[in-house]
Design brief:
Layout: H1 2-8, E1 15-19, E2 28-32, H2 43-50, H3 54-57, H4 62-70, E3 79-81, H5 87-94, E4 99-102, H6 115-132, E5 138-141, H7 144-154, E6 158-160, E7 180-187, H8 194-201, E8 208-215, H9 221-230, E9 236-239, H10 247-251, E10 256-259, H11 266-269, H12 274-281, E11 285-289, H13 292-301, E12 304-307, H14 312-320, H15 324-337, H16 343-360
Parallel strand pairs: 1-2, 3-4, 4-5, 5-6, 7-8, 7-10, 8-9, 10-11, 11-12
Helix pairs in contact: 1-16, 8-14
């Protein structure tokens, strides 16, 4: 969103609405009180969801009700909704101005691994998309296949704005003879198969090392669990997390960025996560579990490997066959693709959306 704000600010003054302090690039900020749920989680709101009174639930979320009040009396030339649940507020705040729905994933399955989401929230998100997306001046999402879903299911032609990061001026680091240095970064959650990475290390040969730059929640139990699982291997290292803008430089000294995510949802199957673009800008080769969009980019640019399964043995089999020449080539191909796979391309798509919607407005 910070990159989006930067592009929007090229065309005018940007007012942001959300939790926390003003983000960089905002001319004005309207802060929604912290801690307010962004879904109808009050008893009355849950009842509306349960009885499928979706129109009545549009402003039942306390955060949206607060944003609605804070926006009264204000006028804008373009309103951007960064989530399907924000669409009712966006259209009310627009007063007829164009609305751009910037949807970062397939909204009806955003949290589909949670039973209450599937039963209560998914129908509500489907309702919001069906009611509002056809009325939007523009719709965007993060991958071509998710864009196709929005057009097929809701008749909304969506532009693709990938979750890529800015181009970083780096070069591939040289390999260390006899070593292949794996690295994984990001939020530490079990669904990202971190245990699989650790278990695979116990069966990989001594060429391989694995370093983690993980962000843990307030509960340190999961961190202790992972550290205990890695005990006995001096080739696994846990580092403190680094700020997002520092990540490419921190990862640049490694060889292969590795990331496995079981494709249990539509969003997982069609993902183009920021992790992939982090690795490319760090000039690393990439090792990913199979996902349609990722597979295509890895193959077309020669960036690395896709792993057929999500068990330690699958990762061991894929990595064990690698040579130093393979890894060196992956890193060079990441360097060659870094401009094309940077946010520069996506910023131009966003500029096109803004010009088109402002002219329409």
């Amino acid at each position: 969103m910070l990159r989006q704000i930067a592009v929007l600010s090229e065309f005018g003054d940007v007012t942001t609405v959300g939790f926390g302090p003003a983000p960089a690039g905002a001319a004005r900020h309207i802060e929604v009180p912290a801690g307010l749920p962004s879904l109808p989680q009050t008893p009355a709101g849950v009842l509306k969801l349960a009885t499928r009174r979706h129109a009545a639930a549009e402003f039942a979320a306390p955060a949206l009700a607060a944003a609605r009040d804070l926006l009264k009396g204000k006028r804008f030339d373009l309103v951007v909704a960064n989530d399907a649940r924000a669409l009712p507020v966006a259209f009310e705040a627009a007063h007829g101005a164009p609305v751009w729905a910037d949807l970062h994933e397939w909204a009806p399955e955003e949290q589909s691994h949670i039973l209450s989401w599937r039963l209560l929230v998914a129908p509500f998100m489907t309702y919001l998309c069906g009611i509002y997306l056809p009325r939007c001046a523009a719709v965007s999402t993060v991958s071509p296949l998710i864009a196709e879903l929005y057009e097929k299911e809701f008749g909304a032609a969506a532009d693709v704005v990938r979750n890529a990061r800015d181009f970083v001026e780096l070069s591939p680091s040289p390999l260390q003879p006899g070593r292949i240095r794996l690295v994984h970064s990001g939020v530490a959650v079990p669904e990202r198969c971190i245990e699989t990475l650790i278990d695979a290390m116990h069966d990989l040969d001594d060429r391989f090392s694995l370093d983690f730059f993980l962000v843990f929640g307030d509960d340190d139990a999961y961190r202790r669990q992972l550290v205990a699982r890695a005990a006995g291997s001096d080739r696994i290292t846990f580092h403190d997390p680094v700020a997002p803008h520092e990540l490419p430089a921190a990862l640049n000294g490694f060889d292969l960025g590795v990331y496995l995510l079981r494709p249990t949802t539509t969003n997982h199957r069609f993902m183009l996560p920021n992790k992939f673009f982090d690795f490319v800008q760090s000039r690393l080769g990439v090792v990913f579990g199979r996902a349609v969009e990722i597979d295509a980019l890895i193959d077309s640019h020669g960036l690395g490997l896709t792993v057929d399964g999500f068990e330690p043995a699958d990762l061991v089999a894929a990595l064990s066959a690698l040579t130093e020449d393979d890894v060196r080539a992956f890193k060079q191909h990441a360097d060659a693709a870094a401009h094309e796979l940077s946010s520069d391309v996506d910023a131009e798509v966003q500029r096109g959306i803004i010009r088109r919607t402002l002219n329409r407005g």
